[in-house]
Amino acid sequence: MKDDVFTFLAKLLRDQSGLALPRDKEYLLESRLAPVARQHGHQSIDAMCAAIRGGQNRAAERDIVEAMTTNESFFFRDTATFDTFRKSILPTLLTARAGSKSLRIWFAACSSGQEPYSVAMILEEERARFAGWNVEMVATDISNEMIQRSRNGLYTHFEAQRGLPIQLLAKYFDKEEQGWRVKAPMRERIKFRPFNLLESHSSLGVFDIIFCRNVLIYFDLPTKRDVLERMSRQMARDGVLFLGGAETVIGVSDRFAPHPGHAGIFVPAQAVALDRAVGQ
Ligand SMILES: C[S@@+](CC[C@H](N)C(=O)[O-])C[C@H]1O[C@@H](n2cnc3c(N)ncnc32)[C@H](O)[C@@H]1O
Fold it and tell me: Model confidence at 278, in pLDDT bands (50, 70, 90)?
């Protein structure tokens, strides 16, 4: 791939999705964008880039961004995280929100939906504690295709077996010819919608819990910082942020601080400061 084509594509991806593409990942461009070029009627990636350089082909740009997203996900990914959610974070918030009986959860890069459905199953298992509560789950991703997949809630046999205990599969999924589909009431409980983390987050409202796992790893430092800072404005003062196992706020943003008791979980920095001030 010519230098100027790589530079053009790296800038397009950085500007439109935050993806930071080092030169040693050029092979990914070749393998993922060759089909996009063909689909848009071009002989090669070089030819496609030459045609869209003027910025007149939003559909091709969208397809390029979409093709370059990495959508790996599975049910109960990092089991310990979901155990902590169920056994510690949820009970604490249930006590804190006993007055309003309202809880808002955002899955900021939900991919094909396994992460929000994992949480939805936990909430359903704990439903006796939620009688009369209003629990809103919003799941977003930059990829339209992933949002559609999430809404469909249909998983292959392989996907359904990855991380999902057999009793939950039997309870919350229907078997179909192509695989296993999440039962309708569970699907309807989650609001899936396309959303780019580089956009303003303010229209989403304020959340008590945010899952933003395994997406910041693809961004460069200024983009990580920017996303975390904007996310901090959408978080309740005593809210909780879940990041992926390889992600942290340390050295990235001072808006969040590590949860005092749990690795991989973060809280608004002013909450930590206030707790220290009152000696908790
Ligand atoms: C590896 S998946 C993580 C899925 C899930 N959170 C998990 O941990 O299993 C990363 C997701 O981030 C999404 N993504 C990448 N850039 C994004 C952006 N700028 N805004 C929103 N989502 C983005 C991708 O489309 C992809 O589905």
Answer: low
State whether the beta carbon of 247 lies less than 6 angstroms from ligand 1: no
Q: Is 118 in the pocket of ligand 1 (CB under 6 A)?
A: no
Domain range annotation of the chain: 3-69, 79-277
Instruction: Tell whether domain 3-69 is in CATH 2.10.70.10.
Output: no
Q: 44: CA distance to ligand 1 center in Å?
A: 27
Task: Give the pLDDT confidence of 25-70 residue by residue, as tens digits.
Answer: 999 999 999 999 999 999 999 999 999 998 778 999 999 999 999 9
Q: Of 3.40.50.150, 3.30.200.20, 3.30.450.20, 3.90.1200.10, which CATH number belongs to 79-277?
A: 3.40.50.150
HSE-CB at 253 with a 13 A cutoff on CA atoms is: 28
If you measure from the C-alpha of residue 219 to the centroid of ligand 1, how many angstroms do you get, rounded to a whole number? 11
Task: List all residues 6 or more positions away from 28 whose beta carbon is below 8 Å from its beta carbon.
Answer: 21, 68
d(CA 150, CA 200): 23
